[in-house]
Amino acid sequence: MEIKFEEEQKRAAVYDGGKLIGQCVYEDKGDHWIITTTKVDLAYGGQGLGRKLVDTVASAAREKGARLRATCSYAAKVLTKPGYEDLR
Asked: Which residues form the N-acetyltransferase domain (predicted)?
């Protein structure tokens, strides 16, 4: 598995041998980003890939100095956990 931050496509994506199997999509609103979708192929469920995708977007937001919110229910739940306070 390979996770990539694809800024031009406004997402973090996970690939298995070149096949896209999941993504975390965000909207760039300047000083803040909004995660709108986090999806992972069901065949790859239970491996923590959704969390890794959210973490990848969170790391990129930190680097860019952006705050992070989510309309995606999964990402919203992740962002309430310890370790994300600086992005609120």
From this structure: 1-88, 4-88
